Amino acid sequence: MKQLIALTAEALLAMAGAVQAQKSSPASSRPASGIPASTSPAPGKPASAGAAAAAPTDPQIAMIVVTADNVDIDAGKLAATKASNPKVKEFAELMVRDHTSLNNQATELAKKINITPEESATSRKLKSDGENSMKKLRGMSGAAFDKAYIDNEVTYHEAVLKAVDTTLIPNAKTAELKSLLESARPIFVSHLNHAKEAQSSLR
Description:
By secondary structure, this protein is mainly α. The protein has a single domain, classed as Ferritin, core subunit, four-helix bundle (Ferritin, Up-down Bundle). The protein contains six helices and no strands. The protein has helices at residues 2-24, 58-82, 86-112, 121-138, 142-171, 175-201. Helix 1 (2-24) packs antiparallel against helix 4, helix 2 (58-82) runs parallel beside helix 4 and helix 2 runs antiparallel to helix 5. The longest helix is centred in the last third of the chain and has 30 residues, at 142-171. Mean pLDDT is 80; it is low at 1-7 and 18-53.
């Protein structure tokens, strides 16, 4: 269960931690303690680029947002069909609606400001971990599925909010992209609170 909860959020937390470490130790190019060497360099950049390049670019931020949305949409669609608890099913349907809307906004904005989303270590890990989470969830059912899905959603949205606050918004250079992230933040907060409510109903 702990492995499932830690999966997708790990990439976002690692990214936020690496950028925070770079800000607090500008003279150092070594990875932050506790952050795997593979996630400490800038997404899409070689390790030799140094800590100064650790922040994601706007195209990488756009891809991180789209990937994070897709991960939650896929999990929500699965939970909407497999959840046995009405509150969990309701939450899953909300995730599909809201994250589909956010994804559409991000895609339209990228076209409008001529940004081509670019893969990075973070977006690739998000996608890979999301696929691993889905495999585990597909093998579960009933109350065990409900608990695993909601526990994962609480951890995931906590990680998303941390990444938005410490990495994505501070490093977004395009005003429209920064504005989209700032307008999405309250939605993520609402999702986290909703997930916690559903989580409490399962105890």
